[in-house]
Design a protein that fits this description.
alpha/beta, 7-stranded parallel beta sheet, 7 strands
Amino acid sequence: MVKIEDKALRDQVVEYLQQFVTESRQARLTEIIQNRTRHVTVVLEDLFQAQNISAVLRTCDCYGVQDVHVIQHRNDFEANKDISMGADKWLTISKYPHSEHNVKECIDQLHEQGYWVAATLPDERRRTIFDLPVEQKTAFLFGTELTGLSDEAIKYADGNVLIPMYGFTESFNISNSAAIILSHFVERMHRSNVQWQLSDEEKAELYFEWLQKTVKDPDGLIRHYYEKNHIQQD
């Protein structure tokens, strides 16, 4: 994906690329971006079932959650295209490959971005999803299907959150948990006075990225534009 730091040049390239995209498609991209958010994000720790990974990605896209953070230990992150329905194409996925401190590295970065990190745990002593204030930027941390979150993830999280349950089963499937939590949080967020939308610059950057994913051979088109206008490509 081509990145252009010069905003004026980026806007010129966007205008050029739009010649190869229908007006209805341009309008659709703009419409979706208006509902994208980084006020809430999802962190997946070492999931190994592709169907669960893909379902979570699809849920994030449906609720307008732009960023997904992936902590990898024993399992490589791989989506099932038939289940994700291409959702991963439109998301910003940050991966933290296996290392001694990758959990802390991920959570530290989230803290730097102003997130309150919530570990999702099936423990009745925890705060429920209904009690979370939507005014605070929040990152929901989900653990692997069999063993849940690692001790390190729980240690560095700012607090814990649960989904109230009233049956014999102790927990929801990971993809169901993500869907329920995001449904409640995002809906409350939309009804609040929180400034949850992307900034104008974030929208412009994302539009340029999505535009490249929409046209055929974006690298070739951009290279042609540079050559045509005698612009030196970095």
